Amino acid sequence: QVQLVESGGGLVQAGGSLRLSCVASGSIFSINEMGWYRQAPGKQRELVADITSRGSTNYADSVKGRFTISRDNAKNTVYLQMNSLKPEDTAVYYCNANLVVVRFGVRATYNYWGQGTQVTVTS
């Protein structure tokens, strides 16, 4: 069974920093794209940043220059370093990964989500 487990959320004052981590585990053959999304109350889930297996990154305009996504392929882990946090960054942050998994000896590609971690930024 494949799981994505996030950690690192919490409460921080505006201007502060947090680092989110997401570890993928289970019958994983390989990992394609990994990314972070967020959903604020009353709003749709939105992409924050993603990263390909080769390290190419993409960011939402609202976080460019403040957030950095990275990954450790050996550890099946993706990180999101969040600096200069603003109250509008408050949301539940979800890890997403496009994985090649092995089931009954067959490889297949699936999209997985983590359970989410709350980030709250106070003014």
What does this structure look like?
- With 123 residues, the chain is mainly β.
- 0% of the residues lie in helices and 63% in strands.
- The chain has no helices and 11 strands.
- It is elongated, with a radius of gyration of 15 Å.
- A hairpin with a 6-residue loop joins strand 4 and strand 5.
- The N and C termini lie far apart (40 Å).
- The model has no long low-confidence stretch (mean pLDDT 96).
- The strands form 2 sheets. Strands 2, 4, 5, 6, 9, 10 and 11 form a 7-stranded mixed beta sheet that branches.
Given helix and strand content, the structural type is mainly beta
What is Rg? 15 Å
End-to-end separation in angstroms reads 40 Å
The portion of residues assigned to helices is: under 10%
The biggest sheet amounts to: 7 strands, mixed
Beta fraction: over 45%
Order of helical and strand elements: EEEEEEEEEEE
Q: What's the overall average pLDDT, rounded?
A: 96
What's the layout of helices and strands?
Layout: E1 3-7, E2 10-13, E3 18-25, E4 28-39, E5 46-51, E6 57-59, E7 67-72, E8 77-82, E9 91-103, E10 106-113, E11 117-122
Parallel strand pairs: 2-11
Antiparallel strand pairs: 1-3, 3-8, 4-5, 4-9, 5-6, 7-8, 9-10, 9-11
Short description:
With 123 residues, this protein is mostly beta strands.
Key attributes of the depicted protein:
single chain; 123 residues; mainly beta; 7-stranded mixed beta sheet; 4-stranded antiparallel beta sheet; 11 strands; 63% strand; elongated
